Recover the amino acids of this structure.
């Protein structure tokens, strides 16, 4: 089955800096890679996703890149703001199976 | 507003007691999911349902049961057989397709604790 590893587990950046979170997956059949943001006491919210036929996707300050050969994908947040502070989860799905990474706690210091 | 409503927000269970967590969606989604979230871990799938009156076990179904009698509702029962039920439980829905093949919309969770 699929296995997803996410790094780092915690990340602290200064406001205005960039943040990068990386995930690797094991199943070459995985073809959908969403990223979720979870604020304290809330459910995860989809912030961006990418499918295996695309190498990069951008939405304002957020971008995701996918390297199918190396089986890894990354979340990039530019010009970070304090409201970006949250836990971020990556996921990989395919063949009727979906796995989440363990999460990254991002703290943006003002 | 369309969304997923989970209730209650906090729930306490006594030893030997079954408890039921409610999940209702008005997004007209076919698929619904239950996840368990423990500190420092990713979400783990308990059960999912891709259509009314049908559901499948996920990775950690032991000690849990579900029903899907209506499209809008997917309640989860935590039975006394679940020896470590303390966790944050999340319900999600999507438009369908294979598990996780479409974006999932999550409720705000129920935190279950043992008394």
């Amino acid at each position: 089955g699929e296995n997803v590893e996410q790094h780092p587990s915690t990340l602290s950046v200064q406001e205005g800096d960039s943040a990068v979170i990386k995930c690797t997956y094991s199943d070459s059949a995985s073809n959908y890679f969403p990223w979720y943001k979870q604020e304290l006491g809330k459910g995860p919210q989809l912030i961006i996703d990418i499918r295996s036929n695309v190498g990069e996707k951008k939405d304002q300050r957020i971008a995701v890149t996918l390297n199918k050969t190396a089986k890894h994908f990354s979340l990039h947040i530019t010009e970070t703001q304090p409201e970006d502070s949250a836990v971020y989860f990556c996921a990989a799905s395919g063949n009727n199976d979906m796995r989440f990474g363990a999460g990254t706690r991002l703290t943006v210091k003002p | 507003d369309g969304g997923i409503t989970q209730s209650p927000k906090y729930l306490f269970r006594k030893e030997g007691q079954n408890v039921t967590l409610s999940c209702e969606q008005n997004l007209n989604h076919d698929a619904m999911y239950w996840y368990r979230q423990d500190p420092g871990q990713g979400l783990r799938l308990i059960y999912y349902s891709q259509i009314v009156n049908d559901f499948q076990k996920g990775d950690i179904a032991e000690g849990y049961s579900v029903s899907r009698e209506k499209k809008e509702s997917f309640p989860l029962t935590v039975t006394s057989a679940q020896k470590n039920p303390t966790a944050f439980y999340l319900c999600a829905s999507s438009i369908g397709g294979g598990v996780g093949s479409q974006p999932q919309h999550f409720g705000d969770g129920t935190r279950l604790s043992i008394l």
Summary: Chain B has a mean pLDDT of 93. The first strand of chain B starts at residue 4 and ends at 7. Chain B touches chain A at residues 4, 6, 40-45, 90, 92, 98-109 (CB under 8 Å). DSSP finds no helices and eleven strands in chain B.
